[in-house]
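We treat protein structure as text, and this decision shapes the records that our systems exchange. We quote a single record here, exactly as it is kept in our systems:
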Amino acid sequence: MAIGVSRVFHLNVNCSNLERSLNFYRDLLGLQTVVRTTPAEPQPGGAFGLESTQWDAWILADSRGLDGVAIDLLEWQVPPPTGKPYAKANELGFARIGITTTDIDAAYERLIDAGVDCYGAPHDVGVEGVPAMKAFVCEDPDGTLIELMSGPTDRVGVAIVNVSDFERSIDFYERVLGFKTLARFGSGERDGEGLRLGPKVDWEMAYLDDPRGEFAFAVDLVHWNTPKAKGTPYDSANHLGIYRMAFQTDDIDAAYGALRAEGITCVSPPATLSMGPGIPDLRALLFPDPDGTMLELIEVPS
């Protein structure tokens, strides 16, 4: 039974230097700043599994504004950031964020000119049943992977999530979160050079539509056969990289009860969080997917 989420709201990207990362996501990728969340002082951090929390963050959006899916670009103040983003594209958890662009060659040249580490020039992506497109992967200033893909619009389009049990994860995202599988791509040998994984890789993938059902955003669940998925999802909310994906809900208490009924252990019950001066408080909770990849529920303020 779906727990009652309406849509994906944002993807959280933890960074070590907010201004430096803002230059990458805003000035090089073209996202727009929407609102800055800067709690004035530390607050209890139980919702994040931390003792105390304080951050400085920008909510970034594409041309759809908050009707699309935002990036929550966040620099932790208390506690400070820890760790490094995944070293390989096949590690379990949030592997990368996919952003479509109407001029992929210009985007590549702009990133190269700025000294960004790109994993190769735009290349043809051939997946059976998918319209031809070009793509390339690059690293943000901390090493978080971003994939640029050719498309009819410039927008935050997809989150790629590596999973250990393909069928279990598909069931979870469909049945618990309300996604709909639009396509599945079977195991087969593919070129992995664009991910720096060598010339021959083998994966299977499910392409899932956001719960709103409007093709506004997708999650790609990827199960790696060769090379096998490695590592574990990040275990701390202040870990550098893509830590959590946030969903909106109209009734977080009912959703919390539904999660518990599914046997899912949340990090905490719903908690009230200060977002900073001039911004309404939010109620939120965090919970893991079957691999421990972190998800978040946010109750829409009335």
User: Anything to note?
Assistant: The CA atoms of residues 109 and 121 lie 9 Å apart. Helices lie at 18-28, 104-113, 166-176, 252-261. The domain at 93-226 is CATH 3.10.180.10 (2,3-Dihydroxybiphenyl 1,2-Dioxygenase; domain 1). The chain is about 15% helix and 40% strand.
